[in-house]
Amino acid sequence: MIKLDDIRRHAAGGVTRDALVDGQVRLTWGQFAETVERTAAGLTEHLPAEGPVRAVFLAGNSWQLTVAMSACATLGVSCTGLDPQSGAEDLGQVLTWLEPAVVFVTSEHRATLDRLVWPSGPQAVHVLLDGVSAPGAPAAPGPHQALNFDLLTSAEALRTLPAPRPYESFAVSARSDGPSRIAVRRTPSEGRHLVDLVDEFGLNRDDVHLASAPPTESTALALARTMLGIGATVVLADGAGPETLSALLVAERVSTGVITPSCLHGVLGLPETAEPSPRTRHLRFLLTPGAHLGRWTVNTAWERLGPVLHTALGSPETGLTAVMGPEELLVSPPRSGHATLGTNVAVLGEDGQPVEQGETGRLAYAGHQVMDGYLDGETLTAGLDLGWGEERFLITDEAGHIDETGRLLVTGRVTEVPVVVRDSAVDTELFRLESDLLNLPCLRDTAVMRVSNAVLGDAIVVPFIAVAVGREATGYQALSAACARRVPSLPAHVIAVDTIPYSPTGRIRTGDLLDAVLPIITLNLQLEQSMQQEMSA
Fold first, then answer.
1. Structure confidence by residue, pLDDT tens digits, 144-162
2. Is the Cβ–Cβ distance between 381 and 394 less than 8 Å?
């Protein structure tokens, strides 16, 4: 988040202007500066004097977390978000790698944190963000050194800032095929990123920004930091329901925002958004992760909110790499966009060299947003010259191409697993199938998952959300036909669902989704077999 000096500068330009809005709590820039100053002073009493000092948080958006992150930025302490939905083993491994001195947590996730074990855990300070200290009572009893957030904010203001620490920044990258990894950046680039985002989207201090995506989503965090960095107002609404988000758009006169696909689906499904309305006339820019955004969502957002929706492609390793604007979204395929300012894209062939424009290959990225490497392992990079000097490119596991307009299209994933173990050609077709399905206007959302078990054998499972109640049959027919056309070698089990779960980074939680639909599919198969046996008897 932003440092105390920047907060003071904005406070000097308008001490009573709103900086943060969180439900009924409104912090002016003056109050924001004072609270961060006291929190930073309180934290210094609990931080080691030497060595790398790191903090993590297990919490959603709140004014307390924003203050805590700004205090950490002021003190030169990295503050890394953890996904509360990750398994205990994965969270414990991340904590072991990071060895944080401070953990910010909310009551909702405190029980999860208390069950986690890592080497420096007993020495770490646990700060309960939504805890209030009762007079004469322990601050926050538990198995670890703990205190409530209000005790930090009651400290005396800082007289002088501590000596700067070596810069480091971390981002947890969730992986569907293994444990999470930690992307490391050791060179500050927030200033350059702020300038690029302001230029990219025309942001200014008069904007009111809706932060309705989790702070663990790297693009959402970068936009919130940018908006505070230019002195705008940020409305925190992570975890809010569709009705609340719709009301905030109107009540706070929101002009910009970041929203997850699932929340966007919910807002667009409300009766009050069924027709274009002047209620949201201030809204001019809404960004959402675009990896799983479907045709219905794009078309409906245009009809009901106007030309405001932008899709984003990116990752914790590469940062925000590509964006697609409202007009082009109407005719562009999913998982596509134009490279953002400060980002260079290379498409590599099997020999590791750039291919001709239009050819498909492995995607590599360069720029100030790209990580330096992984904290826990090797990083695949290459030095390439695309015509303006050699740059260090991070080679990803994505495949794609750049068309004649300069638009990047992600077409699949590159796997290092031998073909004898897994049919990579079929995996590529499954990726394309999902893109095909997202372009169908008869459904709101879908996912394509490959399974292999005793009941279904080697098959694909395709959950989908229909455009409306009673329209499931149309979606079922369209999806079944597309599956048979694109991947005829695998049986497809198409099933209507009420919701598709997403991670904070916008990726579908395939494990949770499979757990929800496999019992239903298995039961349906058993019923079909029973009916066939009865008919043949």
1. 677 888 888 887 877 777 7
2. yes
